[in-house]
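#dry-run=false #mode=assembly
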Amino acid sequence: MTTMIELRELTKRYPGAEEIAVDAIDMEIHEGEIVVLVGPSGCGKTTTLKMINRIIEPSSGRIIIEDRDVTHENPDHLRRRIGYVIQQVGLFPHQTVAQNIATVPRLLGWDRDQVTERVDELLSLVSLDPAQHRDRYPKELSGGQRQRVGVARALAADPPIMLMDEPFGAIDPINRDRLQNEFLRLQEEIQKTIVFVTHDIDEAIKMGDRIAIFGNDHRIQQFDVPERLLSEPANDFVDDFTGSGASLKRLNLQRVRDVELGDWPNLPSSTSRETLQERLAEIEQAFLLLLDEEGRPVRWVSERDLSRPQWTPDVGLAVRAVVPERATLHDALDEMLTSNVGVAAVIDDQRRYLGVVDIDTIMTAVNTMRQETRELVAVAAWHAPVDGGQSAGGARRVAGGDA
Ligand SMILES: Nc1ncnc2c1ncn2[C@@H]1O[C@H](COP(=O)(O)OP(=O)(O)OP(=O)(O)O)[C@@H](O)[C@H]1O
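#status=ok
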């Protein structure tokens, strides 16, 4: 594993402040991983993040990026190699989306065609249609769209590192889930080294390959893979902070694509009423799933829908509860609770039907994870050094999923 960012005894004391803001942080962050900094308000997460690109100058300690000590490097040069995304985005209000995204490429002196091409490529990457969005102003976008533009802007010059400070903090919960999933999809493609600040432990567990929990003493309490934080908290603070409901939290660790999906009886939506009725009579489920000509789930139909005197081809209930394969089981459970049928339909990137997740899938996954965690803890105890120290790494793969 290549180390991308090293923080050595990194410390910040703001001038005139009584309390230290960040106290001697040591971290090694590997290439291509998402490291989340999480902790209560005022514990020093943002200050740590901003010291990495030197928006805030450290009082002492060192920052090493790709084996180079950048603690005293020209910060403008440094910032061009590090993308930065903040809550509320900080887009320039009087510039169009395209101009906003082009900020760094223009600073770097790219020619006009190259910039235009890159802007369109980035808009597509963050799921915004370039033709529709490039000439809009930030105030003409929704919160989620602005956040996507913020991510596109940070990626413009293809920096190896991204710093993200509560990037989804101002978005409502449903859109936040969607943005988190989209961002995880994007990360599979771009494989950046990401440092991500949040105060939300659920978001940390969902997004982080590893998580650093900061305490009120402005130091790191534990830096480890999510499973280990949940199963072996280093101290009472971490235990309290990760909180109750460990089983539910573990649902954030497992992806839909890692579990065995259920199959649901389905037919093309163009199927005749008689054939639908025949099929319904054969199956134990009370609903049939109808797919459009591309294989995308569209409606659920029951015997009652089919026996109405007025037959129209669009009878039934629209399929609302759908989740992409990379969604977590927690997302799937959320969706399932909104579904009249009690299952969430799983779809691929083209929205085609792959299978369903139901409550049995979730229960099986929880039980398997419990068992694996028990084994993991047993193995860790067996290998633990006599002083009780903890070693990071590897556990995530063991406990299911390569998220
Ligand atoms: N510019 C500043 N001048 C003086 N003190 C500051 C300054 N910025 C932050 N602090 C203090 O430093 C400490 C760490 O702040 P920081 O913003 O890094 O915390 P945080 O963990 O990101 O908090 P939050 O989740 O509330 O954003 C806090 O006690 C804060 O009051």
